[in-house]
Automatic annotation (TrEMBL):
One GO cellular component term: cytosol
Any GO molecular function: aspartate carbamoyltransferase activity
Family designation: Belongs to the aspartate/ornithine carbamoyltransferase superfamily. ATCase family.
Name of protein: Aspartate carbamoyltransferase
Name of encoding gene: pyrB
Subunit: Heterododecamer (2C3:3R2) of six catalytic PyrB chains organized as two trimers (C3), and six regulatory PyrI chains organized as three dimers (R2).
Segments forming domain Aspartate/ornithine carbamoyltransferase Asp/Orn-binding: 156-302
Binding annotation for carbamoyl phosphate: 58-59, 108, 136, 139, 264-265
Xref: Pfam families: OTCace (PF00185), OTCace_N (PF02729)
Length: 313
């Protein structure tokens, strides 16, 4: 079993069939994470390099753990502790990794298109862990997996994404993936944080959060970046919290069947109250576990190995 592509750069050009293949594979991978011995020899002899040009805790740790659970050899390279800090270009770094025998390169970079540039210049598979405000496909997949695990089929579900849509690679990737699986996607936030003509991506747009919350099945709350307030994109943190923060009153209004999600890290007390983040409707901690399963699935599928009893037992 393998993907019909060398690289995995985003969900914009991925079919619903491929998304479901990844989700189905992640089910088997999550089963591995529940065992007493949480490791299989599936990628023994393969080398995975994590190349992170941006700070990261959850995503970087998740990819490291995913590769190790599959018995791959793992190397992590960060901007501050490598030749990148001395001015080495992305292309030169890529060529070095290729000579070192990388099978899969996981990259996070502040420049949109960096993952595509890398994929075009090395023979190893490239997995995009976030490129600027463009795409974050593994976060979207773990979000979709979490929804499907709790609510069943994605088709027909009403999913609301709240917050800074304009600067969010998570929002874009979720919209691409959810639309392909038949969900009804809406976004809500200040007009200054909503991209122009985003309706063309197949979403409804709301400036009134309370109106947007009517009859939703899932609320995915994005982290507010403090620098947006400093640059004048919304008046104040207090005002944002009152108008767009997910609080106990709004949680009660949407009912007990609705899911609460957040990609992390959270600003508790700003975009989400602790009572909401820690409520029974919240799957935020489960998203972290599902992230490891999704990344295991992608590493496995990109390596093009066959699942058999020997690999997964």
């Amino acid at each position: 079993m393998s993907l019909k592509r060398k690289d995995f750069l985003g969900l914009y050009d991925v079919s619903a069939e491929e998304i479901n293949q990844i989700l189905d594979t992640a089910v088997a991978m999550k089963d591995i994470l529940t065992r007493t011995v949480k490791k299989v020899p599936t990628l023994r002899g393969k080398t995975v390099i994590n190349l992170f040009y941006e700070p990261s805790t959850r995503t970087k740790f998740s990819f490291n753990l995913a590769a190790k659970r599959l018995s791959a050899d793992v190397m992590s390279i960060s901007k501050s502790s490598s030749s990148i800090a001395k001015g080495e270009s992305l292309l030169d770094t890529a060529k070095t990794m290729e000579v070192m025998g990388a099978d899969v390169v996981v990259i996070r970079h502040s420049a949109p298109g960096a993952a595509k540039f890398l994929a075009d210049n090395i023979s190893a598979s490239v997995l995009n862990a976030g490129d600027g405000a463009h795409a974050h496909p593994t976060q979207a997949l773990l979000d979709i997996y979490s929804i499907k695990e709790k609510l069943g089929e994605i088709a027909g579900l009403k999913v609301l994404i709240v917050g800074d849509i304009a600067h969010s690679r998570v929002a874009r990737s979720n919209i691409w993936g959810l639309n392909k699986l038949g969900a009804e996607v809406a976004v809500a936030g200040p007009q200054t944080l909503i991209p122009r003509e985003i309706e063309k991506m197949g979403v409804k747009v709301y400036s009134d959060l309370d109106q947007a919350l009517e009859n939703v099945d899932v609320v995915n709350i994005l982290r507010i970046q403090m620098e947006r307030q400093e640059s004048g994109l919304f008046p104040s943190i207090r005002e944002y919290r009152e108008i767009y923060g997910m609080n106990a009153e709004r949680l009660e209004r949407i009912g007990k069947k609705a899911m609460i999600m957040h990609p992390g890290p959270m600003n508790r007390g700003i975009e989400i109250e602790s009572s909401v983040a820690d409520s029974p409707q919240s799957v935020i901690t489960e998203q972290v576990k599902n992230g490891v399963a999704i990344r295991m699935a992608l590493l496995y599928l990109l390596a093009g190995r066959e699942i058999d009893n020997e690999d997964l037992n």
